[in-house]
Amino acid sequence: MFYKDLDVIIPTYNRAPYLKIALESLCESIATWRKIIILNNASTDNTLEVIEYICKKYPERKIEVVTNKCNIGNPANFKKTQTLATNKYVAIFHDDDAIHPEYIDRAMQLFIENEKKVVMISGGASALYNVNHENWSICPDSYWYYPANKNIFLQLLIGRPIFCNCIYKTDVYKNVKYEPEKFGKLHDIIFMAKLCEQGDFIFVHGECVRWRQHAKSDSNTLKTGPFPSEILNILKELKKIFCLENKKKQLFCVNK
């Protein structure tokens, strides 16, 4: 299936071996889309050679490279994806993970079926130290559906979006701020909660992404936070969003 309204953007810096796996997993997807954009944050390794190899191996895939003149840092590179996103839908994937070959097709079909309501789709992840893109199980035909007026409640109760495999409605994605300076390395919790204030969210079941872990990963250390001030900011923001959802539910019930 060809999805002309979708672009995939991958921010990257000095992860050539893992980027190769990530790109191969995307290029072997059963779906096709307009293009893959690699946002190269002035890598000093053989990133460009890996991209050239992938372009030759998968000539049917349209791959573009945008290279920063200097390293602007990981948060700023993610913020730049909002400028590069111009299609109706955009997927922002990590440069060291592998995406299930059926996931994008599954997600885009759900977008089409729920076009007027859904603003974001994510899916289940396996956290692995050795990521590959082989021997996937079939992607299940099931998902959770979170309506906007109950979104943060269901994210906290059942499960929140996996940041590394989110696909967004672009106009909504571009309107939400990345705020790592306020919320620290867990800023994605607030980013996705605020995004889902603007519409419904679908969480696809199964192993949709193989999420790379490593010894120096932020997930494996407290040295980079979350720090007390960041946790407090997150809790304050979640409370604010949760209160707004409760008001929406009350208004909905009154109108009904």
Automatic annotation (TrEMBL):
Protein name as catalogued: Glycosyltransferase family 2 protein
Its lineage reads: Bacteria, Bacillati, Bacillota, Negativicutes, Veillonellales
> Which keywords annotate this record?
Transferase
> Does the record carry Transferase as a key word?
yes
- Domain Glycosyltransferase 2-like positions: 8-174
Q: Does the keyword Ligase apply?
A: no
Which SUPFAM superfamilies does this chain map to?
Nucleotide-diphospho-sugar transferases
Q: Name the CDD domains for this protein.
A: Glyco_tranf_GTA_type
User: Which GO molecular function entries does the Swiss-Prot or TrEMBL record give?
Assistant: hexosyltransferase activity
